[in-house]
């Protein structure tokens, strides 16, 4: 149910998160720090043992029947990004089940005090391009080692040998979800079949033929402005709410095409000042439109 209708009155206690906090620390402050349809967030400040300083953490508690899977997915996604660009992603500390609320699962990360602003296009895309260029798929394939969620919708991330295979499966899943929500529609069915049988092979297959290869890059999976901020202490861009998988780097800025977002054509152009367009380059605009579909 939507958060506004949910009943969830809860203050984290040491017992709830003791396994992922520093040993023998003391919680000195807890405050709510945001909410969504699926989760409630908190800022937890602790006193470290034998330390004068305090340390703060960000805690997100999932209120969903698939909360355990969603928490693990966010933890693994965030960890993968933090491993590549640690200055720009909060370090995940751990995840688990609340001791005092069985069935409720949480993720704990270092707290980053952020301004709700977009960094400059050049600073933002530099972080994204670094992650794309310096990440390596552990299998050399496309996908991820567990199911990742877009909102509360699971994404099938089983490993695929080719990008065309992975993207075709993802597109079919999207189309099937649309049919479940909207009901059957003949025109949509016909268009869906043509996209799968003609458009995807035409635009994606050339990148993996005639000796060409697509590098499986670590993608954020949800790079809209609501998942980006600026660290108030370091002034560095910060990315969060990762839904990661290894895929074609250009797919990561599909949402930059939408007019409702603060990202736009300028971000695409800035990205390609520090990274190359995949060959065949003349297909880029059509690939971008396909990824944004």
UniProtKB/TrEMBL annotation:
Its EC number is 2.7.1.172. It comes from the Eukaryota. It catalyses: N(6)-D-ribulosyl-L-lysyl-[protein] + ATP = N(6)-(3-O-phospho-D-ribulosyl)-L-lysyl-[protein] + ADP + H(+). SUPFAM superfamilies: Protein kinase-like (PK-like). Keywords: Kinase, Transferase. InterPro entries: Fructo-/Ketosamine-3-kinase (IPR016477), Kinase-like_dom_sf (IPR011009). The keyword Transferase applies. GO terms for molecular function: kinase activity; protein-ribulosamine 3-kinase activity. Belongs to the fructosamine kinase family. This is protein-ribulosamine 3-kinase. It comes from Apiospora kogelbergensis.
